Amino acid sequence: MTDAGLRVLSYNVHRWGDDREALARVVRACAPDVALIQEAPTWWGTRRKREAMAATFGLRYVGGAARNAILAADTITLSSYQHWRVWRPFIRRRLRLIATQLPGGAIGARTVLPGEGQPVDRETVSGREVALVVCHLGLHVGGRLREFRQVIRGCESFGVPYLLVGDLNEEPGGDLWAKVAEAGLTDNGEHLGPTFPARAPGRRIDAALTSPGLTVNAIPLSEVPGLDPADLPKASDHLPMLLHLT
């Protein structure tokens, strides 16, 4: 953590199923205080696998809901955890095909965002409380809107300014993004470019949204020291988003 602000990484890690060493190098180069993960490993041994993944990043596993997880550096204190499942149709129809969808959800927690000259100390906390929330919306067009409304209600229940990140599975200009604007949220990824697929990015379906009261500096990956661009398509099918909150 810097003396002013918090370094947050949003990353869809593709179930930790690609090149794990490349993924670890990417995350370590980004050096986040908090990592908000989508498509975290699930099924048998979920917690064990998430703790093992976090350890390769030099972070600790804090908690998760559905396929989302929060990881944090040892110096970061998080509290008031909330996690919830969201409504999602089990059956999805697309192009005359029928497919099933895994349950959706979100998880968030509070932390203290230090101001200039106000480093956070575990014993005497100074600064401003904020909430960090991560979600992964579904592929069903109508279902995404309902999921998003539920996620926003969860974000607002913290009662403090919040950052919401995640894989929205929809590009700007769609109905979901109109709801983003209606909620008064700021799109902080507008200048970062496409995020999917990592091997040849052409779509921006990952988002970093903030409520009023937070300022976010989105850091281009090209400006991250020690990050090898060749690792990005090997690490996951999504590109990460690196943010500095003040």
From TrEMBL:
GO molecular function: endonuclease activity
Keyword Transferase: no
Swiss-Prot/TrEMBL keywords: Endonuclease, Hydrolase, Nuclease
Endonuclease/exonuclease/phosphatase domain sequence ranges: 9-238
SUPFAM superfamilies referenced in this protein's UniProt entry, alphabetically: DNase I-like
InterPro entries: Endo/exonu/phosph_ase_sf (IPR036691), Endo/exonuclease/phosphatase (IPR005135)
Keyword hit for Hydrolase: yes
Pfam families: Exo_endo_phos
Protein name as it appears in the record: Endonuclease/exonuclease/phosphatase family protein
